[in-house]
Amino acid sequence: MSGMFRSALRSVMASRSRFVLTGAAIMLSVAFLVATLVLSDSMRGRAADDIAAALAGTDAVVQGVTLGASDGGPGELGGSVRRALGPDVAERVAEVDGVAGAAPQWIGFAKLVVDGSSVGTGTATDVGRNWIADPVLSPFRLAAGRAPVEAGEIVIDRSLASAAGVEPGDQVQVLTATGMHDATVTGVATYAEADTAPLQRTVLLPDAAVPGWLDAEAPTEVVVDIAEGSDRAEVIGLLSELPGVEVTSGPDHVRTMQDAATSPLQFLTVFLLAFAVVAVLIGVTIIFNTFSLTVARRRRESGLLRAIGAERRQVLGGVVVEALLIGAVATVAGLAGGIAGVGVLRWLVGLTGVTLLTGPSIVSSTSIVIAATVGVGATLLSAWIPARRAAATPPIEALRDSAAEPRVVSPVRTAVGLGLAAVAIAGGVTAVARTSTTWLLLAAAVVPALVLCGPAIVTAAARWSAPVARRLAGVRGSIAAGNLATSPRRASSTALALMLGTAMVTMFAIVASSLTNAVGSDVREGLRADLVVTSATADFPTIDPTLAGRIGALPEVTSVASLAIAEGIVDGQPTAVGGIDPSVLPSMFDLDPVAGDLGDLRSGGVAVVGDDPTLLGDTVVVEFERSTLEAPIVAVVARSTGGFDAPAHFVDRRALDASVGGLLDALVFVDLADGDAARAEAAVRELVRATPGSFLSTRAEHVANSGSEVDAFRNFIDGMLYLAGFIALLGVANTTALAISERSGEIGLLRAVGATRRELRRIVRLEAALLSFVAAAIGTAVAIGFGWALIEVTGGTDLPSVVVPWVRLAVTLGVAVAAGVAAAAWPAYRVSRVPVLELVSRGR
Amino acid sequence: MSPHPHSDVLDSTVLGPTAQDPDVLDRGSEGTHRAGADDAAAMLVGAVKRYGSGSSSVVALDDVTIAFPAGRFTAVMGPSGSGKSTMMHCAAGLDRLSSGRAFVGNTDLSTLDDRELTTLRRERIGFVFQAFNLVPTLTAEENICLPSTLSGRRPSAAVLDQVVSMLRLGDRLHHRPTELSGGQQQRVAVARALVARPQVVFADEPTGNLDTRTGQEILGFLRSAVDLHGQSIVMVTHDPNAAAWADHVVFVVDGRVHDVVDRPSADTVLDVMKGLGR
Ligand SMILES: Nc1ncnc2c1ncn2[C@@H]1O[C@H](COP(=O)(O)OP(=O)(O)OP(=O)(O)O)[C@@H](O)[C@H]1O
Ligand SMILES: [Mg+2]
C-alpha cells in the first residue's frame, strides 16, 4: 500500500499542472459549499438559539384566532394574520386555574428617532412592545438603567442603543402609528443574551404609553406562566376554552417564532445552496474529465502490464489512491478557505440589504462533514468510475485502444434524453395552460434530459457549426468544429457546467426584469403627482400619519393624498388593502378605472385591481384584525399604486382605519401650486426632512426608484455568478488542457505541416469559443423557456407579465463565450510553446 | 524535366567535413543546366545534433555534411538508432541542430525564427511520417490541401487532380482518416506531401507499417513523382527492396555518413548492409 501511495504521489507530481487545476476545482467547490453552510447555520442558528432562550419562561401563549397566513409585517412574526383579542383577555387568562402569571403583550410599530433621524436601516422591522415586568415572562432583560414606568419613558434594545449612541437618560423621539413622541431612555435591554431580537429593532414602552402610542385596543397576545405542579396540557386545554382565542404551548410557540425569524433567510439559503450545487457540479465535471483521461492513458499501459500478468488492482488501484490524495489535500484547503471566505459571502449577502448577519460564524461539525464528504467523495467517485470501466476492458482490447474515448454517441442514451426533454416541454406547456405548479415540476426533467442528450448535442453542434466555422476561419474552423466531436462525452460535461451557469444567470435576469417591470410599470404609467413621500423601507409603511396634513397646510401645495396599506385575508389569502381618499387620490395617481366609480368607496364599497368589469357588484369579504369588512365591489381598476406590496383592493381610508387601526402612511402624493416649483418643493422637502421615516422624491425620481429593491437583489446575484463563473472557467481551461494533451500527436502534425503557433492557438481558442457558445446558447434557451413557464405559473398578480431582458442576455452570452476563450488561452499558449517533435512523439 | 533514374549525376553527394561553402557542392553536377546550390534540394553542413547534456548526452548526428540533390530520389539507410530520423527532422526544419547548418535550397534554416520556419515547412517541404500522418477531423481532401490552406491558398486544381488520380484516391476524398485503410492513409499523406510541389519531400519510413504490395505501390508513386515532375525526395527505409527504388542510397552509422551507393539494387544494398556487420 505504501508503495502504491508513493507511486501515486510521484504520478501526481509528474503531471502537476493538470492536478493543480483539478485540485483547484475541488478546493473551490468545497470552499463555496462550506461557506454557504456555515453562513446559513450562522444566520439560522443564532436566531433560533436567541428565541429559545428569550422565550424559555413562557409556558403558553394566548393569541387571536388565525385568519390566514401573513406576508409579513411588524409584530406578525408568527407568520399569520389573527383576529384581535378582547380587551379584557389578560384578566380572563389570569383567572384560569393553574396560571401562575399572565402578561399582555402589545406589539405595534415604533421607530427610534435620534436628533431628527431614524436609527437603523435594512430589512429588520421596527417594533414597539410593552415592557413586561415579570422576569419569567419577559423575553427582554435589562442590561442597564431601569424599566420604563411613565408614558414617555422607554427602554431600547442594545444594538439600537449602540447604533444610535444612546445611553439611559438621553432624550430621543419615537415615531409610532399615532405620530412622533418625545421620550427619555431609561434603560437598555437584551433579548435573552442577544443584543437584539432576530430581524427586529425593539422599543419597549411602559403599559401606560400603549393606548396613546400603539393605537391598539387589545393586546396582540398574552404570555402565560403555568404554576409549578399543574398539568400543562390541562391548563392549556382550559385556556383554549376562552372565547375567541388560540393557545399555543411554549415549545410550539418557540418553533413558530424560529421558523418565522429564519424564513426571510430561507430564500437566501436556497439561492446560496443552488449556487453551491452548481459550483460542486462544475467541480465534479472537471475532476471526472481529468481522471477519465488519466485512466484512459493508463489503460494501454495497464493492458500491457496485465498481458504480462499484473492484476488489475495493481494497475488501476493507483489511480484511486491518487484521487484520494488530491481530494484530501484539496478538501482540507477548501475547508480552510471556505471558512475564511464566509466574510466574502457575508459581504455578498449584504448587497441585498440584509444586515442582520452580525456576530461570529457558527461552524458546525455537520457543515464540515458535508463539505468534506462531498469533496473527497466526488473526487474518489470521479476516479473510481473510469477506473472500473477501464478494469473491465480485456487486456488485448486495452492494448489496442487509443487514449481517446469512443466517438460514437449511444443512441439509447440520446433517445431516453429526448424522451425526457419531450416530457419536460409537455410538463411546462401543461403547467402554463393549467397554472399548475405540480406540472412545472415535470419541466425540471429538462436537466437530466440535457445530461443525457449532451453528447448528441455536442456532436450535432459540431456538425452544424462546421460549415459556419469553415466560412469564418477556413480550415482552422473545420478542425476546431471537428475536435468538438472527437470526445463528445467530455465536451458535453464541460458544456453542461457552462449551460447550468448561464441558465441560472438567465433565469435570474428574467425574473428580476419581470419583477422590475411589474413593480415599476404601474408607477410609470399611473403617477400624476408632482412629489411623492415614501417610507423608509419598501416593505413597510413608516410615514408619520400627521405628515400629510402638515404638507397639505403649506400654501405652495394644492392637494395631498395619502395611501395606507393594511394586510387582510381574502379567500384565505393574505391581501394588501389600500386605504385612500377617493376624492383626491385618483387625480394624483391614475388607477385607470375599468368599470364602476371610485367615488362609491365613500359609501362603503371596495375597488379591486383587475381587468374584469363583470366583477362589479360582487361581494368581497376582507378579514382584518379588528373586524371583518364585507362590501360590494363598486369599481374595477386596472392599476395599483406600485411597489412590491401594492394593494390588490382599495377601500375608503376611514373604513380601513376603523378595521385595522394603528396605520402609518405608506405613500403620500403631493401636488404643487402653479408658480415657483423649486421653492414649493423646497418647502415640502423641509417638512419631510424633519419627519423621520419619510423621504421625498420627485415624480421622475419615484418612477426611477420603483424597482430599485430588485436591483439590490440583482447585485447579489451578480456577485454569486462571478464566483460560479470562475469555477466554470476552470472547467473550460481544464477541458481544453485535457483535449490538447490527448491530441498532442495531431497538434504536432499540424505544426509539422505548417501551422504556426498563432494559428494553433487560434484553433484551440476557436474550439473553446464554439463549445462555450453552444453551451451558453442552450443554457439561455432552456432558461428562457423555464423562466417563462415559472413566472406564468407562479407569478400571479405580483408578476403579471414575463419580460425577457434580451440585451442583458445577449451580453451574458457574449461574456460567456469571451470568458471561455480567455480560459482556453493559457493551455493554448502552453501547447504552442512545445517543440514540434515532442508533440509528434507524445501522440505515438 | 528530370533525367531518368540511375542517370549520370550521382557522384559525390558526400563531401568532406571541411566543405562549408555551398558552391563547392555543384562540383560534379555539371551535367545539368542549373547552377550552384540549386542542385541541392536540401543540405546539411557540419551538422551536429546532441540530445541531453553532461554524461547522459547522446550525439545523434556527428558532424554530418550531405546534400540531397534536386530532382532525385535519395534513400537513407542505417541501423536503428543511427540518427536517420534525426537527420531528416533537422533537414526538414522540424528540429534545430546543435551546431552546423541546414539548408533548404539556398535558405539557411538556422537564420529563421519559428514563424518563418513554419511557413517554410508548409510552402517548401513535404513530410511523410511512418504513421499517424493525418488530422483525424479533416477529410482526405482537406488533409491533402492542408499545407496550402494554411497558407491561405488552394493547390491548383490540375495538380490536385493529377496527384489524386496518380494515387488513385478519387473515390476516397471525402472520407475521414478513420474510414481509410492504412495504405490509403499513407497514400493521402504522400498526396499531401506532393501536392504543393515542395522543394523537397522527406519521408521517414513511409512504408514501414505496410505490407509489401502496398509498400511497393507507394514507392512507385514516389518514383514517378521524381521521374515525371522532377520532385526531390529523401526517404528513410530499412528495406533494401524499397531502397532499390531510389537513385542513390546514403548509409548512416553512429551519426555519420558511412557510405553512398548510386543506382542501388536490392543486392548491392544488402551487401553494404552486411558490410556494416548487421
Ligand atoms: N528526443 C530525444 N532525446 C534523447 N535522445 C534521442 C531523442 N531522439 C533520438 N535520440 C537518440 O538519438 C539517436 C538517434 O535516434 P534516431 O531516432 O535519429 O535514430 P533512427 O536512425 O531514426 O533509428 P530507427 O531506425 O530506430 O528509427 C538514438 O540513439 C536515440 O536514442
Ligand atoms: Mg527513425
TrEMBL record, chain A:
Subcellular location: Cell membrane
GO MF, one example: transmembrane transporter activity
Domain annotation ABC3 transporter permease C-terminal: ranges: 274-395, 721-835
InterPro entries linked to this entry: ABC3_permease_C, Macrolide_Exporter_MacB
Primary site of residence: membrane
Keyword Endoplasmic reticulum in record: no
Transmembrane segments: 267-294, 315-348, 368-387, 408-433, 439-462, 495-515, 720-741, 768-791, 803-826
Topological relation to the membrane, as annotated: Multi-pass membrane protein
Pfam families from the UniProt entry: FtsX
Record's GO cellular component terms: plasma membrane
Keywords, sorted A to Z: Cell membrane, Membrane, Transmembrane, Transmembrane helix
Family to which this protein belongs: Belongs to the ABC-4 integral membrane protein family.
Protein name: Unannotated protein
Lineage: unclassified sequences, metagenomes, ecological metagenomes
TrEMBL record, chain B:
GO cellular component: membrane protein complex; plasma membrane
Region spans: Disordered: 1-34
CDD domains linked to this entry: ABC_MJ0796_LolCDE_FtsE
Biased composition (Basic and acidic residues): 24-34
Molecular function per GO: ATP binding; ATP hydrolysis activity; transmembrane transporter activity
InterPro entries, per database record: AAA+_ATPase, ABC_transporter-like_ATP-bd, ABC_transporter-like_CS, ABC_transpr_LolD-like, MacB-like_ATP-bd, P-loop_NTPase
ABC transporter domain sequence ranges: 43-273
Keywords: ATP-binding, Nucleotide-binding, Transport
Protein name (record): Unannotated protein
